[in-house]
DNA sequence: CGGTCTCACGACACTTTTGCGACAGCGCCG
DNA sequence: CGGCGCTGTCGCAAAAGTGTCGTGAGACCG
């Protein structure tokens, strides 16, 4: 979980307010003060959703949006536009910009949050799911609790996030690099092999006598959550 | 309980009176002196109910009400209008604009409180629940009393509110930030770690020889009311 | 069937996060 | 006033979790 939202807004006070409130709502937030910085950050780590001010220094919101649509990694990243009252609201509505939704300033924070939630639910339902299941494994995000066949499994924070990520796409193989990005965050500097260690720990925690191993190692490729080790 | 009521009233004496009385009745109260401030506060933290003066500087009560109805988060927030005597004719329109109830100034405080209670009971029954239970824990809101297995538990005001909040969703994990918002109020500036201290105090107060700890710590995530520490 | 590569795993030193006792400040009440 | 109950902050020690390394077992390849 912890969807990653990039807030692109030049007005500092508003950016801070957004940051604070979205953080509070359980999102991971990064900020960019202009279009240029926004594109840099997106390149660093593609966000799950972008909140984009219409008017921006250097590269305008519309242009940022266009470029997002051009990138293969970000083509489907939902964009929520912030527009001032009279400001070209019709154009945004017209959707020529490629924004998926918009709110008009000034807006209620609660409305913004609701719209963000709605967008994410539409585009990335697995991020919003309260409960992930695979085989006899259950991960309950609200309770922050993992069980395997009714028995509680205790995980450290990192193993928990790792499992959460793997459970979003069971069966799929992820490279160590991909896992580092997803679980540790894009700009953390950690040995790649550290992933092995945590996968090992997760395996151990998930291990049940007689039950099959749920994590599959794909030699020289990565790991996957999968019946049949 | 501790429903959060936003009082929007420009006349200072009346606002203070309302604040004082509602507080006394067990509500958490915030004040806004005009429509603009009201909308800001609502954006910060959506209240459980709004007491709204009909006549307001900057943005009128009707307009505030209309905007509340526009926000998806606040669409269902009950609004209680305060109208002056001469504004009788406007009563109907007040209800047209989406207010859920109204009282005519001057009014008896007890009537206002009764109407607030009625509205909340209708819209947010879980907030008005008289009695919360979990395991052998009982929190009686009417008596403002907590017992664990027949034995009285003494709590300070903060621990009481904290427990009340946790008991509304047992098992769920709340971050320290979320708890600060819910228990201390959204715009109070208190160290995050203070939550730990109060959780600690609550734990101690709830502790019974031989019984399990009812509060679960989730490392790097928060706390939950839960059997099975 | 060796030579490589890759991975699992235990050990360990280091960080981060929590629990807790101590303490000073505050508002209230007799 | 002076005590009392409550609060918020500190600092420290314990607990829990983290990242790196070395070793050895197995997998893959020609």
Distinctive features:
homodimer; 229 residues; alpha/beta; Rossmann fold; Arc Repressor Mutant, subunit A; 2 domains; five-stranded parallel beta sheet; four-stranded antiparallel beta sheet; 21% strand; elongated; DNA-binding
Overview of this protein structure:
With 229 residues, chain A is an alpha/beta fold. The first copy, chain A, folds into 2 domains: 4-127, 3-Layer(aba) Sandwich (Rossmann fold), CATH 3.40.50; 131-225, Arc Repressor Mutant, subunit A (Orthogonal Bundle), CATH 1.10.10.10. The first copy, chain A, contains 9 helices and 12 strands. In chain A, the strands form 3 sheets. The first copy, chain A, has a 5-stranded parallel sheet, sandwiched between helices. A 4-stranded antiparallel sheet of chain A has the order 6-7-8-9, covered by helices on one side. In chain A, helix 2 (35-44) packs parallel to helix 3 (61-70) and helix 7 (157-168) packs across helix 8 (176-184). The longest helix of chain A is centred in the middle third of the chain and has 15 residues, at 109-123. Chain A starts with a strand and ends with a strand. The A-B interface holds A 21, 23-24, 26, 106-111, 113-115, 142-144, 152, 156-157 and B 39, 42-44, 46, 67, 70-74, 171-173, 175, 177-178, 181, 218-222, 224, 226, 228. Chain A binds a DNA duplex (30 and 30 nucleotides) through helix 7 and helix 9.
């Amino acid at each position: 979980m912890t969807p990653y939202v990039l807030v692109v807004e030049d007005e500092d006070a508003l950016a801070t307010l957004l940051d604070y409130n979205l953080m509070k709502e359980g999102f991971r937030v990064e900020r960019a003060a202009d279009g240029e910085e926004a594109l840099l950050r997106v390149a660093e780590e593609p966000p799950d959703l972008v909140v984009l001010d219409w008017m921006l220094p250097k590269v305008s919101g519309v242009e940022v949006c266009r470029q997002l649509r051009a990138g293969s990694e970000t083509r489907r990243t939902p964009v929520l536009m912030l527009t001032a009252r009279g400001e070209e609201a019709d154009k945004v509505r017209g959707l020529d910009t490629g924004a998926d939704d918009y709110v008009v300033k000034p807006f209620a924070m609660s409305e913004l949050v609701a719209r963000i939630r709605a967008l994410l639910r539409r585009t990335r339902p697995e991020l919003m799911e309260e409960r992930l299941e695979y085989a006899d494994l259950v991960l309950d995000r609200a309770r922050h609790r993992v069980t395997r066949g009714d028995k509680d499994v205790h995980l450290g924070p990192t193993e928990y996030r790792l499992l959460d990520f793997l459970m979003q796409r069971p069966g799929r193989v992820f490279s160590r690099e991909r896992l580092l990005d997803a679980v540790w965050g894009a700009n953390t500097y950690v040995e790649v092999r550290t992933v092995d260690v945590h996968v090992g720990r997760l395996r151990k925690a998930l291990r049940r006598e007689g039950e099959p191993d749920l994590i599959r190692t794909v030699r020289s490729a990565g790991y996957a959550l999968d019946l049949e080790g």
